[in-house]
Amino acid sequence: MATIGFIGLGNMGGPMAANLVKAGHQVQVFDLSAAALERAVSAGAQAADSATSAVKGAQFVITMLPAGQHVEGLFVTGDTPLFDAVESDALIIDSSTIDAETAKRVSAVGAARGIDFIDAPVSGGVGAATAGTLAFMVGATEAQFERAKPILEAMGKNIFRAGDSGAGQIAKCCNNMMLAIQMAGASEALNMGVRNGLDPAVLSEIMKQSSGNNWALQVYNPFPGVMPNVPSSNNYQGGFAVDLMYKDLGLAMDVSQQSGSPTPMGSAARALYMLHRKNGTGGLDFSSILKFYQEQ
Amino acid sequence: MATIGFIGLGNMGGPMAANLVKAGHQVQVFDLSAAALERAVSAGAQAADSATSAVKGAQFVITMLPAGQHVEGLFVTGDTPLFDAVESDALIIDSSTIDAETAKRVSAVGAARGIDFIDAPVSGGVGAATAGTLAFMVGATEAQFERAKPILEAMGKNIFRAGDSGAGQIAKCCNNMMLAIQMAGASEALNMGVRNGLDPAVLSEIMKQSSGNNWALQVYNPFPGVMPNVPSSNNYQGGFAVDLMYKDLGLAMDVSQQSGSPTPMGSAARALYMLHRKNGTGGLDFSSILKFYQEQ
Amino acid sequence: MATIGFIGLGNMGGPMAANLVKAGHQVQVFDLSAAALERAVSAGAQAADSATSAVKGAQFVITMLPAGQHVEGLFVTGDTPLFDAVESDALIIDSSTIDAETAKRVSAVGAARGIDFIDAPVSGGVGAATAGTLAFMVGATEAQFERAKPILEAMGKNIFRAGDSGAGQIAKCCNNMMLAIQMAGASEALNMGVRNGLDPAVLSEIMKQSSGNNWALQVYNPFPGVMPNVPSSNNYQGGFAVDLMYKDLGLAMDVSQQSGSPTPMGSAARALYMLHRKNGTGGLDFSSILKFYQEQ
Amino acid sequence: MATIGFIGLGNMGGPMAANLVKAGHQVQVFDLSAAALERAVSAGAQAADSATSAVKGAQFVITMLPAGQHVEGLFVTGDTPLFDAVESDALIIDSSTIDAETAKRVSAVGAARGIDFIDAPVSGGVGAATAGTLAFMVGATEAQFERAKPILEAMGKNIFRAGDSGAGQIAKCCNNMMLAIQMAGASEALNMGVRNGLDPAVLSEIMKQSSGNNWALQVYNPFPGVMPNVPSSNNYQGGFAVDLMYKDLGLAMDVSQQSGSPTPMGSAARALYMLHRKNGTGGLDFSSILKFYQEQ
To answer: Which among A89, B111, B129, B152 is least buried, having the fewest CB atoms inside 10 angstroms?
Structure first.
């Protein structure tokens, strides 16, 4: 079993750290929120009084932060850069969803000092974080990936190596852009069918068994009442917030712009989420885009 | 076994009629093309010298025509309307992909004369037509549907009742709009990933096992070389032509306009297919939209 | 002075007929609405008891109807086709905004019988119809155009020959698609500027004097309070209704589809107007698209 | 007359500096390119051997650089920050087109040290830079604006105060997004008209005199042959490059994302320019988007 420093105990980081504890690891945690820290301690983690303390003696460091500037600040540009504090043979696994450019830049700074920093953003939301069934999309060398894998398996089910440094962030970005496109598309098709007299459950079933089949129709139907236990059947509470999808589509636009990759469909999806969001729906699940198609 | 009149023996109609013969039905066929007629006769059908002759004595009449004007012309507005010629207790099954308004109008004309006319467009392409594994999306009463089902099962695998008259065309329209959206989306995501250094097969696998999963990634990957036996691995030959997707997206725009159903994503997909098509790609498989994203 | 049959006395047709009277013509009017007919009579026109009576003895026939089916019904497919009733040397000027295909078809039917039927849709709205300052976009031969021009000048200021039969409808369609695109674009740019602290009047002025200049900013600013006497400064009352712009964008999609002309921007504008319209805004002026960008 | 330090002598900066010389100012110039420096000297400027030398004794400093990172590097984060070198009472005018966030950040750093730094991006292209008819969009206090105005008038015709720090960049961003939207829209409308048989010059004239009127149709028609002396009539050589419009639309996406301002039309325009650009057209004038609509 390993000693793991874990920094960032929000909605995702909290249950992820708890799963590491369950798997028998010694987990040294830090977060700016005292409440978050307390919850982790209740789950069996050791509270540290700073990020620097959390990484002391740790073979692995896992970070789960909101954006690229926080990751770069923590490791490189802040007052007490964590690259100065980590053990020389530690493997740093950043599971934050951030822009690939920052991920690569921080990794390169680490590499220049002989420190391993890999990107491993997750897919699956709070439910999967709690159940330990997240998907990890990893940007790392083969060797780094093999070293990280057993640790990640305590928190997730599908662990993919997407490629070298930054590739995890790119894969996450591509996947979530695809997700936004097909959630908007499914909402649009269902709304048009229903306006023309079709039953949403019948139309969903037809598309699922035809070439219109996708993840939204399979496990996350946006039309209220078609599926139990999904946000659409619970007033779009819980799940993956519109605001987070908006953030991810912004990252996709950055990747698109930097690499000259045309994104007409992703751009259209982003525009829809922005128009939807200005009506005060930022906190609803992202499948609430269906409501945006309906008469008010 | 039944006597079936079959009119329209093109790429789809030909193999569909052949499967009815295989199932033991007596199939009376007609087409304006002598070559198409001859192929059907080789498969065991009886050639008729006109549409009127083909429906004589038939309990079922199946039509497979290019557009709404052909269907309305054949049954209602032409010189020898087939509604004057069909047996009074025949069930007419129109498997053409046409606009729902025309389907409903023709059905209403039939109903006023005591003739049953239902819409049953198909999904699956030439391969499924030949293999007898088409999906049928049927707009009909429950009773009409039950009567048609055994006949359709000789040609298809999934037989859905979408709702009353016209609902089959609406379901087909919604499904194909969804398909265009996710094929364009998958192409866009894969192209962006590859431009950022990812392997298309690896990225496809990651999305398939995540929330980006859809039919295009599962069975019809648009990136050359990721899957064998799909059009993208055969220079986009065969499959479902760009020109046909363009036609179907035009039908979707009509349904959208007539019913006041917003279609931002379907409109964006149609725009892409139109821009792609003007480069002389109308005859390629519709997954060739990936090429439109790539540098020329 | 001429004898003119005028059919269709709605918001546009009424004042147009009145201007013909003012110019000294004898105007024989017909409309299904008794109230509309009465208003025209007050303005000096002669009421007819049917369309057939209205065109009796008229050298010119002008029609102003809602859609292609009405025009085709009136002249060709209805119970008493007007092509049977018009004087053999009359010039028929259809000022309705309809699809170019129908315009060309009706004109061809007329031509086969030696009757001149030209398309001459208008631009400018109710205000310009009343002031006699409409723009006419005419699809006609040179000779037909020269004959129509003096009559049209009694109702409008700019009289353009766009080309042969149908070209007037195409020009109108292109112009109104351009208008929708730039009205949405101006609203989007102004909203973004204002959200970033700019004054809408200052930003409007800057764009008007730069490369962002367009008709919307010049004479029809969508931001409330920037200009007096425009719909945006009167709660978007009056002007050109969202529902009419939606109809015109539908015609543009038809032209696009029939001619294989890509319309990514027009499609995006149509999607926005459809999304806006489902919130019960169909009767507001089309510059109300600005509201759709704002927080609710 | 004033002493002015001018840094950045590219296609725009070169002629701008020359116009300052013509107006009688003493202009101390610097650029990394020796050729650019030499051209400025031929025009009457004094060459400096570094940016630091160029600003020595200058009451005004003007910069014309490619992107935000260059501006921030030059004044704040580089090895020899220019904020350490400028005269304490100098007014710094940054005419680069950069993101508003960077403009505001650099201005705030300057303000904290008592140094005036304002944003004043330009509109009008190389032609206007040479002719001294640029538009300047200025983000500054009233007092800063009044001080800058006489200097800017030596290089431009329309000098606007858009608002406080950053507002010039926002205004430029909004204007250029509007420009991209209407250039793409005009190209789309003209292409559709021409595919339906209309003459591009006739259709342009009709729209110019109707509600479709805009800057593109007035002075920069994208259809070859309609206007002399515009890039479209010269194989899209010269003018404002596709690559620069692509850069500006990227800045617009950033502003949109940071401020939560929906940009469906701007996003659609950006998607078109990206798709166009991947065909190797980055160096053509941006009105070449018309070619992207045409059959290849």
So the answer is: A89
CATH code of the domain in which B221 resides: 1.10.1040.10
Number of domains making up chain D: 2
Nearest to D267 among A260, A271, A278 (CB): A271
Pairwise CA distance, residues C283 & C246, whole Å = 11
State whether D89 and D185 are in the same domain.
Answer: no
pLDDT of residue A125: 82
Measuring CA to CA, how many Å separate A119 from each of A67, A171, B200, D20, D192? 13, 11, 19, 51, 48
Taking only the tens place, the pLDDT of each residue in A52-98 is 999 999 999 999 999 999 999 999 999 999 999 999 999 999 999 99
- Selected residues 212-231 of chain A with any CB under 8 Å from a CB in chain B: 212-215, 218, 220
Q: Give CA–CA dist A185/B171, Å, rounded.
A: 14
Decide: A118 and A103 in contact? Cβ < 8 Å. Answer: no
Q: Do C261 and B275 touch (CB under 8 A)?
A: no
For the domain that residue A33 is a member of, what is the CATH number? 3.40.50.720
Residues of A in contact with B163 (CB under 8 A): 197-199, 202
Radius of gyration of chain B (CA): 20
**B258, exposed or middle or buried, with CB in 10 Å at 0-12, 13-18, 19+?**
middle
Each residue's pLDDT tens digit, D219-278: 999 999 999 999 999 999 988 999 999 999 999 999 999 999 999 999 999 999 999 999
Instruction: Return the DSSP state at B241.
Output: B
Per residue in C193-243, pLDDT (tens digit) is 999 999 999 999 999 999 999 999 999 999 999 999 999 999 999 889 999
Residues A221-225 have a mean pLDDT of 98
| pLDDT tens for each residue of B99-120 | 999 999 999 999 999 999 999 9
pTM: 0.95
- Look up residue A287 and give its DSSP letter: G
**B26 with B79, same domain?**
yes
Q: Which chains share 3+ C-beta pairs under 8 angstroms with D? A: A, B, C
ipTM of this complex > 0.90? yes
How far apart are alpha carbons C51 and C231 in whole angstroms?
35
d(CA D126, CA D129): 5
Task: Identify the domain containing residue D196 by its residue range.
Answer: 170-293
CA distance D244 to chain A (A): 12
Chain C residue closest to B255 (CA)?
C250
Separation CA A46–CA A34 (nearest Å): 13
pLDDT in tens, D14-61: 999 999 999 999 999 999 999 999 999 999 999 999 999 999 999 999
Residues of chain D contacting B278 with CB distance shorter than 8 Å: 293-296
Q: Which chains border B (3 or more CB–CB pairs < 8 Å)?
A: A, C, D
pLDDT at D138: 98
Neighbours of D295 (CB within 10 A): 10
Last residue of a domain, one of A164, A189, A224: A164
